[in-house]
Amino acid sequence: MEYRSPVKDTWLHVQLAPTVDGLLLHVHEKSEPLPYQETVFPEEQLTTEVLEKLYVGVGVLTPEGIVLEINDAPLADAQVRREEVIGQPFAETPWWTPSPASQEQLRSAITRASLGETVRFETLIHPREGMDLYLEATITPHRDVDQRVSYLVYVGTDITARKRAEADIHALIDALPQLVWTSRPDGYVTYHNHRLINYLAMTPEQAEGAGWLAGVHPDDQQRVWEAWQTAIQTGRLYEVELRLQDGRSGTYCWFLTRGVPQRNAQGTILYWVGTCTDIEGQKRAEQQLKESRENLRVLAETVPQLVWVARPDGWHEYVNQHWRDYTGLTPEQVQSDKRAYLQFIHPEDRESNRAVVQRALDTGTMFEHEERLRNAQTGEYRWFLVRGMPMRDDTGQIIKWCGTCTDIEEQKRIEQALRESQERTSSLMNSTIIGVTIIEGEQIIDANDTFLRMTGYDRDDLHAGRLNWMRITPSEYLARTLEAHQELSSHQSMTPYEKEYLCRDGSRLPVLVGGAILEHHPHQAIAFVLDNSARKELEQRKDDFINMASHELRNPLAALKLQTAMLRRHLNKQGIHTAASALSTIETQLNKLTRLVEELLDVSKMQAGKLEYRRETVDLDVLLREIADAMQHLHPSHRILLQRAVHASLLGDRDRLGQVFSNLLSNAIKYSPDATTVEMELSATEETIRVRVTDHGLGIPQEQRDKIFERFYRVTGTQQKAIPGLGMGLYIVTEIVKHYEGTISVDSAVGKGSSFTVTLPKSRDA
Fold first, then answer.
1. Over 80: is that where the pLDDT of 752 sits?
2. Second CATH level (architecture) for the domain 536-608
3. Which residue of 38, 164, 520, 638 lies most exposed, with the fewest beta carbons within 10 A?
């Protein structure tokens, strides 16, 4: 930009360029303005068009003159790439080597600048063949905290146009280059110089008097004539902007016309001397500025932020539409009441807002503040980030404040969620009940104090890498542990499972383990470890009690059954059939009690791993028929349908296999009270035998299907609870099937029935 200094009455040419630290303001004092002017007000940003027309070469050098960075303009002139000059001595680059004199100028300037002096000089360079540029160069040293020169900033401004203009001006001065005119005191124009006559394409006679007015644009003639008459009448300076027609091309250009009265010693006007100065470029710049301002206004109305502009005292003078829509205030309300907007700040944030703004006004520094603003339409408060930046004039005085309010409600919610998550994580890691570990591969890389206390290890063991879940897992649990970790890798989490850990002192700790992959660290997982020893001890006591109780009940029950059978036969012989029938009912209940005790004993032996199995050839076709006949006799309410597609046999314990299918058939009958049929199906392949038992009863909910095979578990529905049982049948079935390395599965629909399928390998020799 260029402007005239009112103090020295000289022209100042000012350029703004980026440097490493910030911005470099470069001021040149000139006797006359450059032919081409760009007027940019301090509060306006440079438009792209202005930047493209402004040539400034900016470079960052070491104190020795090595190029650290350089902008694109000089690179384009010399047609070289940045990497060709970065790291090279600046004086040896293509701009300077063709001219030894200029090269020596630069070297001398670098030497002086490296000693702390700001050096300015004008020189001629040759970026490439056929191209000459006059530069006004400035090398500015920048010091570090120890006041040593750490780097140099080079700014080279193209003054070729100015140099040429100066040469032209010199020639034009000799040839009276300006449009000059004179008039009598009454305003009658008596003379136009040759240049003005040529421009208007008039003869001197045509331009005399008011004839020159014909060359003024029709829209300006009345205004110009009235201004000229006022100046004649008052004797004051005549100055007016007008459009003059180029008589040869017919185009109009803007001129600034000035007339100065020339007076004698008594103050009487002798004549007027005037000039017409071409201001077409200035007018275009003003138009560009106007358009730039409009573009800035449109930009302010387009961005999603609430935008505001305030005077130096903080009084708002402009707010964009988003601001007005959010607060519900009109521009008039904002401009007439300095504190109008305060009512929309959350009461808890008003004091902090006042303090931040006042500190910014006192210090003239940028401010940034988070506060809650109320939406005038909904009454809802949302978090905003409020920023304010001071805009200064050439003297450093603040002329206005520009600011934005950016909605950060979602960001604040995320931050709050993150804080809550971190608090939950911290609470979890500090838990005194649950052990928590972070694992990566086989290594435990972190653990809370509870886990270390449970296993007897300490932080030194953890940091030394001695905690490895493979090494502290007993061999009999490795297969299940590996299966759980494979599930973790595939599904990002693992189903909690029971295992034991080897503690530091060699003891074993029963635990329940679960885990999940960490979302932001896919190679790490978090595992939760619950001490299971109390539960295991309780289960052991329960098993011991069941085993003891079963053994204690077995002998009295056997004796009671024998005595009841003898008494029933004796009463039958004596013809007391009523009493004998009652004893038969007692025998039936004793048989049920005996079967229950036997099941309890089987469960106890299974838990201890002491259940015995015989080895014999079992014809499943015959076995299933016998079981079906016996169940049909006991439960005449249901029709048992046996479908035998093949004759199949295997090696096993006939009684234990009989338990499997008897329990399944008994359950199918019990849990289908409203149905009339139950199906059993036998099928086989070359390798396996499959038995399916299907009912049309109550069915099992999806979430309980995996649990029904657990010991003492029963489905929790109201109808199921009404059916007697201890939940041992399916557990016994599962353990026997596992012994034969077989599988059992269930397919069920609530209200439609269930189908249990047992698959046994033919080759199993047990």
1. yes
2. Orthogonal Bundle (1.10)
3. 520
